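Try it yourself: sequence plus P-hydroxybenzoic acid, in.
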Amino acid sequence: MSDIDLFTPLKLGPYALPNRLVMAPLTRNRATDKNVPQAMNAIYYAQRASAGLIITEATQISPQGVGYPLTPGIHNDEQVVGWQKITAAVHKKGGRIFNQLWHVGRISHPSLQVDNALPVAPSAIKPAGDAVTYSGLQPFVEPRALEIEELAGIVDDYRAAAINALQAGFDGVEVHAANGYLIDQFLRDGSNQRSDEYGGSYENRTRFLLEVLDAITEVWVSDRVGVRLSPLNPFNDMCDSNPEALFSYVVKQLNPRKLAYLHVVEGAIQADVDPDTAFDMTVLRAQFEGLYIANGGYNKQRANDALKAHKADLISFGELYLANPDLVARFQQDAPLNSADPTTYYGGDEVGYTDYPFL
Ligand code: PHB
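Structure, out:
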């Protein structure tokens, strides 16, 4: 045990964080229909600038990476200009903000793709469920398995997005390798049945993630680059035959890369963890040599318990940050919390977005 709590300052890469609260990445579907961030997004993020660190909503690295309506990208100049206003607004309030880089892989739909193309994935395995499109929910389609020759091009898209994130004034980037999107589709064997160097062994399934990280760390010093994993989350029809062994392997490969942090979605979102393959995330925490951000339904008490027990260095909050722009002050004062309204999570205007009251 230690006396560390949420209000103990911490150095993350070159940044002096005043506290250990992280705003978790939250998809809010309030960009324009050209996937450009807009004015209300700057207000929303600036309201939450007292967090130790803000991680943006997932942000597409390319048109192919789009999977939902009204989500932002960082692959063209208009988007970079939109993000510049957001990073400037957060910095003006004294905050720090990382951009979460995203390619959805198979979690898309032809109607969201250029020329109605098929979504792409490691293997042609259709996820169960429905895509969210501009004309409502539509069943997922069988994705096109990526040719091995195409992968370097997607790595280049990550590199270009990382350069754009630098231009946009971000303090760092988080590689979204969680929640059933493209990189996670490579990692877990429920979605990766390739027989080339990108499928089969742990080494092969981790190759794409490491190539992406190596490209991004040509652009950003590695202490400004984080990774998000979700070893047990079945969301987006994901599973793996041995997540403990797979993700232990992944974490060991991350160590020599000296990243800013490892961010772990410890349980499940919108689904239940498979008890047959579940394991305790302290295994990954112990194997990772850098800062560890824990995510998953934490409140103040659980967060402080985890920090005191050295089970995490920082805690990220999703729903609580959505509804409480001044979560730091509320925790500090043990003030009552606003409760989040799920009907305004995805899409809409300022209502349920920038109008949650401050203390
Ligand atoms: C979602 O839009 O539902 C979503 C996006 C990114 C995530 C998880 C969920 O990592």
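One thing you can check immediately is this: The radius of gyration is 19 Å.
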